[in-house]
Design brief:
With 79 residues, the chain is mainly α. The protein has one domain. 42% of the residues lie in helices and 0% in strands. The protein is built from four helices and no strands. The radius of gyration is 15 Å and the shape is flat.
Length: 79
């Protein structure tokens, strides 16, 4: 089975999308965060399943890494 390489946005395309999102009046920050997370490889299901506990450490501060649980990721099964 052939796997296709994902297309990568150029720096100019990323700036264009961020500029567009900055000018959207509704959910501006949320949309920018979703876009940036997708640039770093998160799938839509993973982004939609994110919870605060996956983004914070035990003291409630923003963690340095996202801790995806199986329910938010592919888990043990290959797709």
């Amino acid at each position: 089975m052939l796997k296709k390489q994902a297309k990568v946005l150029s720096e100019q395309q990323i700036k264009a999308v961020m500029s567009y999102l900055e000018n959207c009046p509704r959910n501006q920050l949320r949309n920018q965060i979703i876009f940036l997370l997708s640039l770093h490889g998160l799938r839509s299901k993973e982004i939609a399943s994110l919870e605060i506990s996956m983004l914070t450490d035990s003291t409630g501060e923003l963690a340095t890494a996202i801790s995806l649980q199986d329910k938010a990721s592919r888990g043990c099964r290959a797709e």
